[in-house]
User: What shape does this take?
Amino acid sequence: MDLSFTPQDNAFREEVVDFIKNNLTDDLKQKMAENRNSYLPKEDHVRWQKALNDKGWLVPDWPTEYGGPGWTTTQKYIFDTEMANHNAPGVMPFGVRMCAPVIMKFGTEEQKKRFLPRMLSNEDWWCQGYSEPGSGSDLASLKMKAEDKGDHFLCNGSKIWTTLAQYADWIFCLVRTSNEGKKQEGISFLLIDMKSPGITVKPIQTLDLPAEGAQEINEVFFEDVVVPKENLVGEINKGWTCAKYLLEFERGNAYAGRLKRGAQKIRTIASAEIANGEPVINDPSFRAKLAKLEVAIQALEMTELRILSKLASGQNMGPESSLMKCRGTDLYQEVVELALEAVGTYGIPFIPLAHGQNDGVGPDYANGAAPDTLMPAKYRFMAAQMKSSAILWQS
Ligand SMILES: Cc1cc2nc3c(=O)[nH]c(=O)nc-3n(C[C@H](O)[C@H](O)[C@H](O)COP(=O)(O)OP(=O)(O)OC[C@H]3O[C@@H](n4cnc5c(N)ncnc54)[C@H](O)[C@@H]3O)c2cc1C
Assistant: This one.
């Protein structure tokens, strides 16, 4: 694996940094610092994503025929690393990163023409309707029903944990279209307009977002929702194939850049915080923990680079994408836990007293340290489920 950068790569890095400097405005930076789960208000996300799209950089993974920039895997790596270094907003993944590859591979020409350009232009926001109460790790047991009514499906049931459904214009759903045979064989992949009569979105309050209005995940209820047949992606009862294909893209995120940034923040905090008359960073046991974490992050980065090099040679990401998600989320949890240990008692105030500041209770870097440990815990929980079941890859 060749890890050196060419002069062209270095020039590209400068272009990325320039883009960030020109577009990551002070108010966006401030909001990113305040938003502990990196979900900005929708209008800010749209602003950022429009800037990326104007530059032709919104969809690094899309083929050029659909609007992708045609980057090398090294360029993608540089882009992800610089975005993480500057704490730039991530791209909302549900449309462009998750649903789009499925439409490109399994969708009709009409579906490609209808949905892909509106994802690029940020006109349509998407959410993911996979999980149901009782169908999480064992996703194939899902029950939401889509009855064939001739020219349309009639949908009844519910989805749960649906991230940012409150913003979404569309939801891609796994629905049950048959109860015959193996449970995986009766599932279909359906695109549903969130404005359809019969859909209700109900927020779920989470530990890390206690403030009113701070909403990330939801329940979505479907009562006699009419969905035109043309919104079926791929063949009827073959949605499990689409579902698994989509998950390769959901899980294949880059983690190392943001983890390295987190470890650097711990160093800064631990150098400023004093315990027993010494900076925390001088405590041998703390140093050992941080060093162990940094080594693990470097190892993850190498795995990421190995995956990139596999992709560069034309192979698919495959099950390694699950490995990345498990390890990436575990390490993220360790990063925020060590950050909380470094800030000590200043981590106790749970809700920020003022937007972006700790308002005299402690240094600004302590803001959100406690709820930060609760947010990735949710993702780690999911990753643990993937580890224990590995159901999707086996079926
Ligand atoms: C923050 C957050 C956002 C999410 N966003 C979305 C979203 O946008 N759209 C969406 O569709 N879903 C979303 N999810 C749901 C997520 O994909 C599910 O949580 C996940 O699939 C696990 O399902 P579950 O929560 O029902 O847990 P369960 O499947 O009930 O698992 C509970 C426990 O049982 C264990 N377990 C389960 N099966 C086995 C087995 N066979 N062998 C051994 N142990 C087992 C698991 O390891 C786990 O510890 C989100 C979840 C979270 C936490």
In short: The longest strand covers residues 217-228. The two ends are 33 Å apart (CA to CA). The pocket of flavin-adenine dinucleotide is lined by residues 127-131, 136-138, 161-163, 217, 378-379, 381-382, 384-385, 388-389 (CB under 6 Å). The chain is about 45% helix and 15% strand.
